[in-house]
Amino acid sequence: MSFQDTYDALLARWDVPVEQLELTDEFGTTHVNACGPADGQPVVLLPGHGATSPVWFALAPRLAGRYRVYAIDLIVDAGRSTNSGRTPKTPADLHTWLTNTFDGLGISQAALCGHSYGAWIALTYTIAHPERVERLALLDPTDCYAGLRVPYILRALPGLLRPSRKRTMSFLRWETQGLPIDPQVLELAGLAAEQPSTPFVRTKRPTDDQLRELAPLVFVAGRSKSHNAAHLTRRVTTLSPAATVVQLDTATHHSLPSLHADEVWAAWAHELPTK
Measured between alpha carbons, how far is 248 from 31 in angstroms, rounded to an integer? Predict the structure, then answer.
């Protein structure tokens, strides 16, 4: 199957009506998959690098029972967003893009949830524009509270320098350590690696003082190879004392968010009740 066919096949598994939206701004066209009641509280979902928004197929339907869900394809990554305008080069550019997306969706304030690289965008956006974020949820965040482990970087490097379906799928199988990866998630990530995309903006970790002002809901993958789970937990609880940390002992970095949606939803429903 092609990238677009695999994208649609995974999107079909949301099992709720999905409205596909296209928003245009100075950076190009941003694709958003929306579901849930039109008058529900907005929740914005940002995927990890190379994952694309259909990867939320296990979590989005649960959220859609209470919230209006907007799952966004990153403008600097594979997916159906197209960077046909100004190229984002800095974190501030990404924040401008996300503000434009909020405005285009008519969102004044939303719960913001991101995984991996998407978590970094969500966290730094919250620091830059706290008035637009009602609540922040981070799934195994990278370069937020701690850096990536060197073995993870070295193992990922060949696929970053010379992206290919084979390298990406091999890397994901290595990181998930034998956990049952959904075949369509794996296939979509592999195909996404070979799609044209704008280079993603390099991450810059927030300062300790900036992190102390936050109170996020943080999910830590206990078997993640991207960082040491215990170290990440200590960093979060030390630097953001008001944070809520949920340890997912059997999760790896890339088995989130699809394989552990039940645990994420249980914590989300407790921490982010409807008004």
Answer: 30
Give the C-alpha separation, 92 to 35, whole Å.
Answer: 28
- Tell me the pLDDT tens digit for each residue of 221-238: 999 999 999 999 999 999
pLDDT in tens, 43-75: 999 999 999 999 999 999 999 999 999 999 999
Gap between the Cα atoms of 53 and 45, Å rounded: 8
Q: Which long-range contacts (CB under 8 A, 24 or more apart) does 176-184 make?
A: 176/252, 176/254, 176/255, 177/223, 177/225, 177/252, 179/250, 179/252, 179/255, 179/259, 180/259, 181/254, 181/255, 181/259, 182/258, 182/259, 184/6, 184/9, 184/10, 184/13
